[in-house]
Amino acid sequence: MVEEFAFDNTEERRKSRQTDGAGWVEVIVGSMFSGKSEELIRRLRRAQIARQKVQVFKPVIDDRYSIEQIASHSGMTHVSKPVMTAAEMMSQMEDETQVVGIDEGQFFDMAVVEAVNKLANSGKRVIIAGLDQDYLGRPFEPMPQLLSIAEFITKTHAICVRCGNTANYSQRTSDSTERVEVGASDKYEARCRKCFVPYSDAPTVHE
Questions:
Q1: pTM of the shown model
Q2: Which active-site residues does the annotation give?
Q3: What is the gyration radius of the CA atoms in the chain, in angstroms?
Q4: For the residues 42-46, what does the mean pLDDT come to?
Q5: What CATH architecture applies to the domain 2-160?
């Protein structure tokens, strides 16, 4: 489920920016299992088909599926460079790069906001995907700050595994109270507002 919030004629505005040399920022946000990485990979592949120079980065902490690839829960992958900080990402940026992809933006330090602005100001298209809320349902920095500087915002939704409604929350099903707890279906499931329980809840079992 993908919804895009921008002014009218979103695609036409993107095309006009490509021709006038201006950079911009696109942010893809949503809960876990909502297709954020899948949408990011789709856009990156289209850019490559258009023969644009693409660089992709992800935080080194995310090693769930691969160390040097971004991966969706559905199995889509794209080669990426794991980095510790926004500064490390910028040190590896190549001048000729036209499109920059960043996955799991919520795991970056706050310096990523300034880095993304700098990249867009230099004429690059920057696409960031990440969780907009943590396991308590609170804004997950630095995603709110990235949303505020983005020209284009896409909100993705999952399906609540408990009742089947639209899911907007990442329900933690483990006992950890750490804000950053990397995991997939072994530690999280998608929940709607009604079924979401802050902190943690037992995994859903369908008989």
A1: 0.87
A2: 104
A3: 17
A4: 96
A5: 3-Layer(aba) Sandwich (3.40)
